[in-house]
Automatic annotation (TrEMBL):
Gene3D superfamilies: Homeodomain-like, Tetracycline Repressor, domain 2. SUPFAM superfamilies: Homeodomain-like, Tetracyclin repressor-like, C-terminal domain. It comes from uncultured Nocardioides sp. PROSITE patterns: HTH_TETR_2 (PS50977). One of its GO terms (biological process) is negative regulation of DNA-templated transcription. Keywords: DNA-binding, Transcription, Transcription regulation. This is Transcriptional regulator, AcrR family. GO terms for molecular function: DNA-binding transcription factor activity; transcription cis-regulatory region binding. Residues 2-62 form the HTH tetR-type domain. Residues 25-44 bind DNA. InterPro entries: Homeodomain-like_sf, HTH-type_TetR-like_transc_reg, HTH_TetR, Repressor_TetR_C, Tet_transcr_reg_TetR-rel_C_sf.
Amino acid sequence: MPHHRADVLAHAVQLLDAHGLAALTMRRLGTELRVQPSAIYHHFENKQTLLAAVADEILVRGPATRGGLPSGSHGATERLREVCGDLREAMLAVTDGADVVATAWAFGLGAQGPARELERVLAAAGADAELVAVGSRTLLHYVFGHTFEEQTARQAISAGAVDRALDSIPDFDLGLGLVLDGLRGRLPS
């Protein structure tokens, strides 16, 4: 039975969530779909394009975006907080989601939506081009890094691989607030 691209992608996300990134191979995906691995290449040119599509799917499945252009630096800060929180939640919802999304974004293969939204909000708040670029990247790096650490720690704790409590992970909201306070100070009043 032939599979559509959407079926292959849905199964790839399911495989990732069930077994982690190391298990998401073209061979295993083909085996689970009962097709030759070469059949997967009909839908995805290579593993990188598959992972980019998986990253985009993780973000699509995440929280619904609230949208809307903010007014003033306070409104911009709250919208930036929402975008970052939504990104974190989407990545945490899938095993190794932070690794997949951050990698696809870094390689420029996918997962560009949050970056574009952060840039849009900063520009609408009056930030100059340099602050838009650096501010959005700084926020993304914070969210990716924190979420990767949190996800990795949760997996290690649940597997009994480390003796660490979840409350030892630094507070996401506090750290995000520190970054946003610095950005707010550079936005026009």
